[in-house]
Amino acid sequence: MADTKPKIVRRSQRLAFMNTDQTGSTPKYERMTGFTTLTNSKEPKEYSRQYVDEDAERSDVVGYAPSIEFSYDRHTNTPVHDRLSEIHDKELLGDDTHVDIVSVDRFTEDTQKRCKATRRTYAVIPDTDGDGTDAMIYSGTFKSVSELEEGYATSEDNWKTATYTAGAIPAG
Record's superkingdom (predicted)? Predict the structure, then answer.
């Protein structure tokens, strides 16, 4: 019998992976390590109105402008940090700031080691660097460029990298 007792989901069970191979035909999703902040904000767009025959206002969500605030301690020889720092330090513009990020919910892992995941393209909006005295800290915001795509992820190396597949997890 399966354990059906509710368990708290730890923050460390939601992993983020960024495509670090911008030129290849096969994405290389590498784990985003060394981040001290990776906070998702939905930023819903609302349509609010009050009808003359009602005492209360109504609101509907009509869109989203998702973003992720980030901060990381800069490490060398880390492809994710190298890519983000390049965008920041060289003050890149337009499509050169776009990155693909896959978010993987490890707490949904099935018996075949597949986890629910989503993928979205973001523009990297740099903010600051150099904060702190112990480590070089970079911060900024990822702002959505594409629709959210649902799929699943697997890993062959204990989640250092991930393979993302769009669509539902196959039965069985």
Answer: Bacteria
